[in-house]
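Re: beginner question about structure tokens

> Can someone show what the tokenized structure looks like for a real chain? I only ever see the sequence side.

Sure, here's an example I had lying around. Input first:
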Amino acid sequence: MRTEIITKRDDLTIRRLPLEPGEAMPWCTDSCNRFTVAVRGEQLRIEFQDTDEHTLVPVYSSMTDWDKPDHAVIAQ
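And the corresponding structure tokens:
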């Protein structure tokens, strides 16, 4: 997995994070608002640490989403 920081300020970080099929991010929490733009893909699986819970999110090119901070530890 590779990450490219496009913009970083005290109140804003914009990064590019391409995930290949089957690739996952490390466990993380969202401590700030997050705006996501899907460039391509069909589905994103979000897993929650220490539980069997997961969420399947259908995605499509140009899909956007706004998420508020959430301190649950997740992997995507």
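Each token stands for a local structural state, so reading them left to right follows the chain. The two ends are 12 Å apart (CA to CA).
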